[in-house]
Amino acid sequence: MRRKKTLWLICMAGLCLVLYTIVISRMDRIENVIFPGVDGAFVSSDKASLMDLNAAETPEPTPDIWPKIDITMNQYRMVNDDNALSSAFAPEVEKISTTNNMMFDAAALPYLEDLIQALKDADFNVYVAGAYRSYSFQTQLFNGKATQIAMGKYQTTDYMDPRYQEAVKEARTITAFPGCSEHQLGLAVDLMDKPYDKLVYSNMNQDFFTYLDSICADYGFIKRYPTRKLLLTGWDEPWHYRYVGAEAAHFIMENGLCYEEFYAHYDPNFEY
Ligand SMILES: [Zn+2]
What we know:
Elements: H1 2-32, E1 34-36, E2 42-44, H2 50-57, E3 93-95, E4 103-105, H3 109-121, E5 127-130, H4 135-154, H5 162-172, E6 188-192, H6 206-215, E7 221-225, H7 230-233, E8 237-243, H8 246-254, H9 259-266
Antiparallel strand pairs: 1-2, 3-4, 5-6, 6-8, 7-8
Bound molecules: zinc ion.
The site of zinc ion has 6 residues, from strand 6 and strand 8.
């Protein structure tokens, strides 16, 4: 009787061992089953649940915080070395009231006048160092710079001299090529608190610029060429402000973007 019981116990123990081995081996296999994951990657089953797979197909929607604007409107027009205005482009301009002969885009002028008044209300003196420039004026400025470099470096004023062309290349890094200046748009303005002999930003009144940067978006203006974005814009001109309208201006200034970064969001073909 006892031998039978012992035999029965051994049989049961053996059966348990067999069942245990089968279960363990199946579990291993389940763990190694692979699902095709997102982007063609394979994930093992223990790392992916059905919920995960659903999540991959319908990602949590992120709110689109970019302003809903029509980038083709004139106030958003991109002008740089690769996006030149034609020589025929001439906006309707009017004189800035606080200047002798500086002109600005007629439709945007009231916003500039208000910005200048706000600076004055904060006890700053305001000097408009540059505003609208026609294509022909930009050509004069550019040729002047190229000739100055050619004379200073190579003692030549001969356009056919290859060294003059070297001077032209160098001039392009200092003065915008005709058609490539935002000033031709009529929406750009160089603002300072007074005239400076040398345009060295760190030597200028920083209180003026700190205040101007804090309010410019309220009037639709952005700091167009901040020093920290030099590699993206190609220009280091922290006194140059551009009208784009308050909605875009707030977004650009509050998110620390340069205009190229902003513009690229709306124009997939735009490269900078
Ligand atoms: Zn400028």
